[in-house]
Amino acid sequence: MKKITFLFILCLLTGIGSFSQEIAPAKVPGPVRQSFAKQFPNAKTVKYEQNNADYIISFLQLDKQFIVTYNSLGNVLESDKQITPAQLPKEVLSSVTKNFPGYDMAAVVKREAIDKGICYEMDLKKDDAGYTVRFSDKGEILNKEARKVEFRVTTKSTR
Q1: Which domains occur in the chain, in start order?
Q2: What is the pLDDT of residues 93-110, one digit of tens each?
Q3: I want to staple 59 with a disulfide (CB 3.0 to 4.6 A). Which of 14, 42, 46, 110 is the partner?
Q4: Is the separation of the CB atoms in 122 and 110 below 8 Å?
């Protein structure tokens, strides 16, 4: 499961990485470092990137992958947190079951953005068919991208 999650996060970072570049911790503004240290005191394997005026910090905390974007003042703009399917809201689980019966779920991420609110993104797979799907917190499908996904099963979407 860690390998799958790492690959998902790597893909996510690769997308971000095409517009950002890795930087040394000393190049991160003090307010960003202070805010990060206060919010995530137990962070491990920390990586810093800069995307225009924003700072993207990826790290592990309690064996969960996080990606947090800050502005130069240390305010959180967006955060991605690895979660388990059991942590999804019931509306999202119901939507997965209804719209993707029999699909397996992996790489579940909770995304919070100050301008877009909360959404949930995951990979779904059934036989050779696969999707990366983004749901609103109400279970509405916001984006569905077909792709060939290979991963180990976290859980079945039908219960």
Answers
A1: 2-74 (no CATH), 85-156 (3.10.450.360)
A2: 999 999 999 999 989 999
A3: 46
A4: no
